[in-house]
Structure formats: C-alpha cells, structure tokens
Request: fold
Amino acid sequence: MDLVQRPRRNRKSETIRSYHRETWLAPQHLIYPLFIHDKKDDEAIGSMPGCSRLSADGLAKEIEASLAVGVKSFVLFPATPEDVKTSLGEESYNPDGLVQRTLRALKTRWPDITLVTDVALDPYSSDGHDGIVDEDGTILNDETVEVLCRQAVSQARAGADIIAPSDMMDGRVGAIRETLDGAGFTEVSILSYTAKYASAFYGPFRDALDSAPKHGDKKTYQMDPANAREGLRELFLDEEEGADMVMVKPAGPYLDVIALLSDETTLPVAAYQVSGEYAMLKAACQNGWLSEEQVVLESLMAIRRAGADVILTYYARQAAAWL
Ligand code: PBG
Reply:
C-alpha cells in the first residue's frame, strides 16, 4: 500500500511507545479501602474474594504490606454489630467507636499514613440508610446533616486526615466544613462523593458491612445512573461549599462522568472502583477467563485516562505490587 501515514511506526517498540504514553499509573495514585470489625479474627467476605473484615492485627498486617509497595492512603469502613445500630446512628460519633479507636491506633503507629474516613450513617443505621429515616420512609436531609457534622468532627479529633462524605445529603459539604473549622480542624480535608450514583455495583460492599437498606432504596439521594449533567450541578455545589477534592463513583461504568467533571474543575478528582467492579474482575479471573494482573492494571489505567487523579480500589495493594 502507498501509505504516507503509518501510525504503527509509533508503536513498534516499547521504547518508542513510551515516548508518547499519555497516562501513567503508580502506587501514589491508589487509595486502599479496608473493612474493619471488632473481633479477634479476620473474616472473609464471600462476594469479595481476597477481601476480609479485618481484626486489629489483620489491619496492621495489611497496612504494613501496603506501605511496603508504596500505598500510603487508606479508607476505613466499619462493620457494626446489629445491636449497636440505631435509627439515629449515634454510634457514628462515639469517641470510642471502632473507627475512632482505629484511627488513633494507626496514627500512633504510623504517623505519616493518610487516613480517609467515610461520613454517612449506613454502617450505624438500623434502617441501613445513609441518613435518618422518617416514619413514612423519607430520608431526612437537614436532620441527617447535623449528625454527619458530629461524625466528621469525631473522626477529625481521632486523627482522620481526609473526611469523605458519601451520604449525598444536600448541603453537607458546607456544613461539615463549617463545623470542622469551628472545632479547629481547618487542616482536615474534605473529599466529597460528588457524583455518587444509586448503583447496583455496591452490592458486595453491603454484604461486607451487612448494611443494605432494610426497606426502600437509595434513589432519593444517590444519583440516577442515566444522568451526567446532574453530576456537574453537584460539582459546582461542592466547589462552592468548600470541597477539596471531588469523587465519581462507581468508576469503570462512569468514565464519561469522570471526564466531564475533570474537564470542569480545578480540584483533584478521585474515582472509586467499587466492590461490584472488584467482584466482577475477581470472579472472571478466578475462573481463568481473564488475566488478573493485565485486566486490573488496564481497568485502573482507563480510569486515570478518563481524568481521575486518584483511585479508590480494593486492588490497591496488589496493583501497587504489580507496578
Ligand atoms: C456508604 C458507602 C457505600 C459505598 C461506599 N460508602 C455504599 C452505599 O452507598 O450503599 C460503596 C462502596 C463499594 O461498593 O465499594 N455510604
């Protein structure tokens, strides 16, 4: 053929391919979500092979192994015994709650790690919702935000570096910022779950924490998977309210939303490769249908290419080791 342009010339060796590689992925781009519980032993999570609800010892081992491969940021998700859950989720701001105790212990042992905490009531709610539920099933916005502010301050007091509200209540970022500042925590960051969708991909996470809604669904607060522009609206509000970083969640099925938000904001953008994305990859790999290292790194690279600065992923430690 008489071709002037032969794009393949730019792909003919690894050296040449690396000249014009646009996206890179390194351990510094990964945040590791971990499940914790108040028991002596780790407990495997059926729908998330390779992940467990960790005891204090199990958590320490996991963190040590992660630091060794360059993962330095962790999110803590607590499994709360059913008898501690209430309709108002008071355990969320218990100064001696599992998350608060764990934050203090980790910061004492590793002062330099970065600890992210989730703000929402679902792990503590007897209704399994992120907010307070009215008698008629309505999720109460403003009443919930008050509790979230208490939760955020108690986490900051215990040593959280980044507070990550995942509840999707209106006005919570501004209220949390004001409350943190009022309590003297001006240095604590807010990573807002900005475009968080009402997704079926959270199923395994809810198994892990036994936190599925007891009735109804989360569609009156989490976003409709059909919408992208609504994510911009949430972005602009979060920016006005003082978010330091914004998040899109899930990640893989929402790459367009990651691209949209990262084009529109000067803030760092995070994306959450959620439990269902992990479970899909894991299941196919365990069956020998996909090659785990390649497919996981490709999925993470694609999320970075779409515009995410940082990725929350249950593959963080393993991916960092592969890198
Ligand atoms: C709690 C929360 C959820 C996830 C992170 N924080 C569950 C939900 O909103 O129902 C899901 C994470 C995952 O699936 O990995 N608000």
In short: The two ends are 40 Å apart (CA to CA). Residues 118, 120, 122, 130, 166-167, 202, 205-206, 218, 274-275 surround PBG (CB under 6 Å). The mean pLDDT is 97.
